[in-house]
Structures are given as structure tokens and as C-alpha cells.
Design goal:
The chain is built from five helices and twelve strands. The two termini are about 25 Å apart. It is globular and about 60 Å long. It has two domains: about 1-145, Hotdog Thioesterase (Thiol Ester Dehydrase, Chain A), CATH 3.10.129.10; about 150-318, Roll (Thiol Ester Dehydrase, Chain A). The chain is mostly beta strands. Strands 1, 2, 3, 4, 5, 6, 7, 8, 9, 10, 11 and 12 form a twelve-stranded antiparallel beta sheet that branches. The longest helix has 18 residues, at about 30-50. Strand 9 and strand 10 (about 265-275) form a beta hairpin. The relative contact order is 0.15.
Length: about 325
């Protein structure tokens, strides 16, 4: 990884308001729509740097880290600022982005995203032609509040389907952060090559309503503990790595479990495989905090839930 010593302020790359359709079951803007805004800013930066795919080429966002700072609600005007933080030996670029609430001035979320140029047919990495002057003009530093707090940006271990599958419960547990779930890649999800479009996350395929399921507001389910408190898991940090893109009609399998936890939080990891080939498509880490939905504050993990987390926790795979 290479970078320059120059440092500028992040520049405005995207602006939009939070709509009612972007509010999830927890009453605030869903994770997906933070990512959409950061992705739009990332694309805008790539365009400013002159990184546009030619014939037989495509851009893939291969690594995305996001950290949430303030929940956002309907009507909020959000502006996304960003800049370049590194060039990956000309085989990719990494950008930093932060979403700010224009009215309050709060930072809503921060992102670190790596994008690469690929050959559409072979999926081989292609070198980027970057202008040094443009690189210097867009280079920024990641502030401390934008860096990982509970997760890491190290390369995770890539286990096989056969290694992980026996360790994961068949049913979804603990608000969906543990267990097995399948999703079907629809034709409308795909690009002209017949594979999942680069702008569509694997998690979106997994978590949207599947054929036969009721349509419902997206987001974590509401749970009630033995004290009668209504709670759920609010995401604080997420990191997603993409290795391959599945084809239209393919079923993908999500296998997830906790790899660590504390008094009020849990770190879960999701491995996504192709059901037919059993190839690893991607890995997603998330740190969720136990949130009292009525008091709107973090609480200790309920006593009746903690033993189930411990039972399936795989710390060796963290």
C-alpha cells in the first residue's frame, strides 16, 4: 500500500435526505442506506480520479468498513464527504468517507472502502492509471473516529464450507446474527454478464424477503427479555469483504455465529457461500450492541440470552 504525505480535507461528494422508506424496524435509517450513500460518494471519487472501466472491465468494491456514530431519522439532510487514503500498488484504491447530518453537524457514519478494476471475463486484477497530481489533491487522513474500534482491517482466515457448516445451527438465532439462511440471486439483481451486480451486497440477497415470506419492514427483529424490555441489536461497526459474485438463479448460503462478545455487545461473523459450488463468496463482520428500543439506550445482554451466545461462540475463528 502506498500513499503520499499530503493531506487535505474530505470534499463533498453526495447529498440526499432520509426518506420514510429508508427507516427500518428499529425506527431509524437502515444500514443499507448508509452504505448506498457512501457507495455513491465512492463512485463519485473514482470518477474524479478518472477511474472508469473500459470495454470488458468492471469496478468492484472488495472491502468495506463502516462505523456508525449517530442514528438518523426521516427528513435528515445527509452530506457525504470523502477523499483518497491509499493506492494499492496501482491495483486498487482506498477511500475514506464520512456522512454528516447537515442540520446538527454530527457525523452519522464513517467508511473505508477499497475498489479494484477487474477483467469482466477472467476476474483478473487490472492496473490503474492514476494521475499523481489528482492523487495528491484528493489525499486525506482517516481521523481517529473513523478507524476501527472493535473490528480489524486485517485479512480474515478463509475457512471451507465443510469446516464451518457443521458448527452453525440450522435455525436463525439471537436476532438473526447467528444461524443459517439462504437467498436466491434474482435476474434483476444481475449485470449484463448474468452475475450479481457490483453495487448489490450479498447481505441484501440474504436478508430481503424470499419467495413465500411476508413482505415486512427491513431490519432486526424486536425481542423481549424476561424483564419485559423490548430490545434488539443495533449495528456499531461492519466490515464486508467480497471475493466472488454469484450468478442469476444461484442460491447463496449464509452461515453466521458470534466470535466474541462482551457485557453489552457481540461480534458476529457471516460466511457466505455458493450452495452448489461451496465456494466462499464473502465474509462479513459486525459488532452489534444490545439496545433497549423504548429507552433508546444500550443495555446488558439479557441473562437468558448469554448462555446461547456462549454455546455457539467460535472465538478461534475471530
Amino acid at each position: 500500500m502506498s500513499q503520499t504525505s499530503n493531506s487535505n480535507q474530505p470534499q463533498l461528494l453526495h447529498e440526499s435526505r432520509v426518506t420514510e422508506s429508508q427507516i427500518d424496524s428499529l425506527g431509524h435509517m437502515n444500514v443499507r442506506f448508509y452504505v448506498e450513500r457512501a457507495s455513491a460518494a465512492n463512485q463519485a471519487l473514482l470518477n474524479r480520479l478518472g477511474i472508469t472501466p473500459g470495454n470488458g472491465q468492471k469496478i468492484r468494491r472488495t472491502d468495506t468498513f463502516n462505523r456508525f456514530h449517530r442514528e438518523q431519522f426521516e427528513g435528515a439532510l445527509l452530506r457525504t464527504f470523502g477523499g483518497l487514503v491509499a493506492t494499492e500498488d496501482r491495483n486498487g484504491v482506498t477511500g475514506y468517507y464520512e456522512i454528516r447530518n447537515e442540520e446538527s453537524g454530527d457525523v452519522a457514519a464513517t467508511f473505508i472502502m477499497t475498489s479494484q478494476l477487474l477483467d469482466t471475463t477472467t476476474e483478473e486484477l487490472l492496473p490503474l492509471k492514476l494521475d499523481e497530481q489528482q492523487v495528491s489533491e484528493w489525499m486525506v487522513e482517516v481521523p481517529e473516529y473513523g478507524r476501527p474500534r472493535s473490528l480489524t482491517l486485517n485479512e480474515p482466515r478463509r475457512p471451507s464450507f465443510e469446516e464451518i457448516e457443521p458448527l452453525i445451527p440450522d435455525d436463525e438465532l439471537l436476532g438473526g446474527l447467528s444461524g443459517r439462511r439462504e437467498g436466491i440471486v434474482l435476474k434483476e439483481d444481475c449485470d449484463e454478464t448474468g452475475h450479481l451486480a457490483e453495487g448489490t451486497d450479498l447481505v441484501h440477497v440474504i436478508w430481503r424477503p424470499q419467495p413465500g415470506e411476508d413482505l415486512r419492514k427491513v431490519g432486526p427483529p424486536h425481542l423481549r427479555d424476561q424483564q419485559g424490555r423490548l430490545y434488539s441489536w443495533a449495528m456499531m461497526e461492519i466490515r464486508s469483504i467480497v471475493y466472488q459474485r454469484p450468478a442469476a438463479g444461484e442460491t447463496i448460503v449464509s452461515l453466521s455465529t458470534d466470535v466474541n462478545y462482551g457485557e453489552k455487545w457481540r461480534h458476529s461473523r457471516r460466511w457466505v457461500f455458493s450452495k452448489n459450488s461451496r465456494e466462499l463468496l464473502g465474509i462479513s463482520d459486525q459488532t452489534g450492541i444490545c439496545m433497549d428500543l423504548e429507552a433508546r439506550r444500550a443495555i446488558n445482554i439479557p441473562d437468558e440470552v448469554r448462555p446461547l451466545i456462549e454455546k455457539y461462540c467460535l472465538r478461534d475463528l475471530a
